[in-house]
Write a structure and sequence with these properties.
Elements lengths: L25 E6 L3 E7 L5 E8 L38 E4 L10 E10 L2 E9 L5 E10 L4 E10 L5 E6 L2 E6 L3 E7 L7 E6 L5 E5 L5 H4 E9 L11 E6 L5 E7 L4 E8 L6 E3 L4 E3 L3 E6 L2 H17 L10 E3 L1 H4 L5 H13 L4 E4 L30 H11 L3 E6 L3 E2 L4 H5 L19 E2 L5 H15 L7 E4 L20 H19 L4 E4 L17 E3 L6 H14 L5 E6 L12 H8 L3 E5 L7 H23 L1 E6 L6 E7 L5 E8 L22 E6 L13 E3 H6 L12 E8 L1
Parallel strand pairs: 21-22, 21-30, 22-23, 23-26, 26-27, 27-28, 28-29, 29-30
Antiparallel strand pairs: 1-2, 2-3, 4-9, 5-6, 6-7, 7-8, 8-19, 8-20, 9-18, 10-17, 11-12, 11-14, 13-16, 14-15, 15-20, 16-17, 24-25, 31-32, 32-33, 33-36, 34-35, 34-36
The protein binds alpha-D-galactopyranose.
Amino acid sequence: MKRFLILLSLALVLVPAPAMNKARRQVISIETEKTSLVILVHPDGSLETLHYGGILATPEQFLQRKVNTEDYNGSRGATYPATGGRFIGEPALHVKYADGTHNTELCYTGHEVTRRDDCVTTTIGLKDPVTALEVKLVYDAYPKEDVIVAHTEILNGGEKPVELLNYASSSLYIDADDYLLTHFYGAWATDMQMESEVLGHDLKVIESRRGTQATQGNNPSFLLSLDTKEFSETRGEVIAGALAWSGNFRISFEKDDAHRLNILSGISPFASAYPLKGGETFVTPEMIYTWSGEGAGGASRNLHRWGRKYSVYGGGQINPTLLNSWEGAYFSFNTKTLLRMMDDAAGMGLEMFVLDDGWFGNDYPRNNDNAGLGDWEVNTSKLPQGIDYLARHAHDKGLKFGIWIEPEMVNPRSNLAHEHPDWVVQSPGREIYQARNQWVLDLSNPAVEDFVFGIFDRTMQLAPNIDYIKWDCNRVIQSFGSPYLGAEQDRFYVEYTQGLYNVMRRIRAKYPSVIIQCCSSGGGRVDYGSLRYCNEVWTSDNTDALSRVFIQYATSMIYPACIMGSHVSAVPNHQNGNVTPLKFRFDIATAGRLGLELQPKNLSSAERALVDRCVASYKKYRDLVFTGDLYRIASPFDGSYYGLMYVSPDKKRAVVYTYSIRFEPRTIGGKVFRLQGLDPSLTYKVVEQNVDRSCWWGNRKSFRGDFLMNGGFDPTLYGLYQSAVFVLEAE
Ligand code: GLA
């Protein structure tokens, strides 16, 4: 378990501060092209965050400001507030020392700035003079994307062990008249629901204690609109934040008596008082921030651009369209069923076939969800010719081949559960509760890490060319406990997630090009921590097109479209969803990474013709979905319509999606969508996709960008579940 404690001594070559309690008063300015984060070093060595927002060309002018000693000393706007000194609010850092004391007062020791490619890193050193606890605040600034990524390294510089009771990744003080918080909550099949509230003076906390499916309840991300009580897509200052961590997290918002807001973000300290021996360093996850003066849309685009370039594995690459076997076949298939599905997938112009759950287990065959998890050998009665045979068939048909695993889990009815009962998460003498008939394997145990890596590794060997792995994780952790950790249970939640990342790192070292989909009963692991290793996520188990409007809309606030697995299923879908037209379902699914999740042989010939057409057209414009800039042109919360568009970085091409999502009687008239992000002076030819007769009078005509953005774009979407997709090409 010590493997995670990076034994970096804080031997940074920092610009030394003259002496403790006599720091030079100075500003540290961390800048991107359009933003500044300004930190003031007070003469007593305490740090105060003065500004995060639009760029300040002369931040040193803050030095002219007169200060009252009692306003600083860590009591106002502290950059990384620790329990102790004058600070009595929610702490970023709370340390309990071996002698039972709780006080830490961090003083500036120096800072340094380094450059690597496009990233400028500012590292600020802090130290508690009494206890020898040291902290490094690390800020990576990405100038072009206007993103600042913060993390913290905490060193126990003393000899005796300490306990970290709070160890935030970052603290950020903001100053505004009003703060409108938008955050994302959900549950299975209703992942990523969006909610906004004006913050009051009480403490607002977004937290997960779910362990594994950390993001299905709340997502570790938010938007904060400043100086307003109304959410705006296009106007005003917005700060967006996202924590790159797939385990328990906590993001809190606390307004102080001067109405300044402190945003604390990091691993949730719930049941996780982390022990740190003398000389050990704890490195927190990264907190990603951006600021935009152009509303939520601007903040999302910054995060998307940064995510595609620096964070999402394989970001910017185009991932294949696919047919997934789940909703079309569930557990009931044999080789013949799958070959037929593959033939249909190839015939429809899709590019990959993914074999979902149900292919493994012999002593405990996986014919439903109550047996087999853990026994990852091919089920010989369903698939006597093995996976290789299927994968070869796929490749012969020009399809890639993917397969599903759920390696962190075990059914009690499995050989694994009998052979390694001590690998199961459990608390001594207590019932091990089941959810979906399964238990969780203890990834805080290195032997389990090896086993989980082995599952991935062996699955990759089932056929010479496995192109894609869907990594599922279908339950949360309850009644936690690790037989491996013995008396050190406080390490469990942190080291479970670190164990997961260790496995992922090993996988990526050995299999750099396999596409990995991160699924967790749908959107249980949608976060920038997972995305460092995974190319995409299964956005939700709910494939109902109307539900997907809201799920995908909210997901797009923080995460780029290239990660959104988005499938067309039969109607009503398996959650008893709405009966929406096939075209509407396609027009929703094509706004992400398109897939199908149905039994193709059940399609009528007219439906099949539409499928072929929609798949073919998507392949022509999907580079815009994967690499373009997103503009949300109508919110599904504002009325009866929803709309979005992706614009190529050179603004010469775009795809526009428009939908009617509530009944709108003919007499009321159509909706005018104002397009965004185009070049006003370019002329675009507008062509509606997948229809013989367009719903817009301007179809196949050419219009200047300013006309489309400021004038009218009014497709006739009368009636429920009408939709239209247009491709724009500059002439
Ligand atoms: C989860 C996933 C589904 C499917 C099933 C298989 O629910 O989210 O997509 O893979 O498991 O059991």
